[in-house]
Design goal:
This protein has 417 residues and is α+β, with helices and mostly antiparallel strands. It has 8 helices and 19 strands. Strand 4 and strand 5 (97-99) form a beta hairpin. The two termini are 43 Å apart.
Length: 417
Amino acid sequence: MEKGGNMKRRILALLLTGAVALSAAGCSGASTEESPAPETAPAQTEAASGVVEELRIGTTAANETFTTFVENDAFGKMCYNSFVTAPFWQTGADGEVEPFIVTDWTVSEDSTTITCDLALDQGITWHDGEPLTMEDVLFTFDYNINVRKSSYASYVDHAEQVDEDTISIVLKEPGAYQWLKMVAGFFYVQPKHIWENIDAPKDYRGEDAVIGCGPYRFVSVDQDAQTSYYEAVSDTYLGREVTVKRVSVRSFDSNDALVMALRNGEIQTVATDHCSFTLAQKDMGREDFTKIPGGLPGVETRGELLYSYGVAKRKISAAQMCRVLSENPARLYGLYPRKGVLRPGSDADIVVYDPGASHVIRAEDCVANVDYNPYEGFVTAGGIRQVWLRGQLSVENGKVLVEAPAGKYMARGKNSL
């Protein structure tokens, strides 16, 4: 039996640590014409203690459908971030499978059975006050296999209880590690007392359809303002401090509205939900589109695209680009000023961008572990000439110079954004 997790490293990638791609205070009436961008600093929302009283998020997804079984609208997308719902596993920053409701697990030698220890002794409750139980866990698998017919559950034969806080998940065929990678962050536990009598979960719109057991509960929605509101269920969750107390999610009418918020300093970070599934993995849905693993690779091209369509088109300034790509993420993770700034005592992490180094994006030129690029054929305005990591030249002209991985684990500090 091979270990898959460890109780001592229960790492949570909650929203408070920056799991959401765009965080905004709202949209003003500024013009989106190509004029010099202002140097407005982002709004400060933190208290002196480092606790963020309210995080405001902007999205083009609508605030219309509120159920944990529909993933298209803003609420559903938030469920993908260990937010209102609680996944069995989550995906770490490096793409590895990490614990969440499942705190530890082993995989059988034939890769067909996953034995899981569950966080049922942590006092987790559903947002209506009912406790999370083993019945909920077993119900979730049965319901997703036989009623919802989830693509994630289609690989599972059944789940069975081993003891008071342990289950075994039996797959239809070998492939446990691939299945774990596919479902981490997306397959979350559901409350039996709400869904057991609902035969069409995607059509159900009862008030209790928003009930989850994640670190944040749904509070209300202002349909006129297209804004939904959430609050932390406690000061801690699964042993980790929750430093963001309230969250509001505002829907914008178009991408132009997001650009206005970005240039006005109301959007604090620009990130990507990097999902580097290969074309072969995407092909799993050739006969059934519901089995296509979601997401696109975006990390490697993010900086060049933001420069090309933001700075070069005079929608934002170079300083604003640096702020949303570097300084603000460092502040969000509590790593500033070691990261996110160039000054004595900080790590010498430097990107040298050459505005004259325009090129065509091609998958064959990228180093990401994926065989396609969604921006294939895009012509950039300039390109990254060099990347320095802690003072060492690590990338030059698209070529990785370091022979061994040079990343270092850094424990996050207090949010200072």
